[in-house]
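FIELD: query
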Amino acid sequence: MKKMYDHSAPVFSPASPNVHEYPLAEGWVVMAGKTDLDNDLLSLKTAGPNDWWFHVRGMPGSHVLLIGNQSEEPSAELLRQAAAIAAYHSKARDGGTVSVSATLAKYVSKPRGAKPGTVTIRKEIVIKVRPGIPKPLS
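FIELD: result
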């Protein structure tokens, strides 16, 4: 007997990633993934090509995006704040100064067959910061 497709059943579609969000100055927002699957969705589906992507070097941690106006460059201070958030959402949270890789999201890709949360990056810069969360905007 042939199975019929149930049209009333929900169709799977990739959900929005579950993230921590931090508003920064000048309308910029930082998003940090909570799980490996959230990291994949954030890095590969949510990110615009000119959003900045961050991850602590050499340790497990969240993928972090700095999102703002696609035609504007973030200041060095905004990049440092986003890097500090990436360090905070990693195994290096309780460390001193931490090295964080940063690149534009268009230089982030997933190797074929790689586990969720695994990506490769190109054209990275390294920002050394202390892990931390910015104070809420007032």
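FIELD: remark
Residues 19-129 form one domain.
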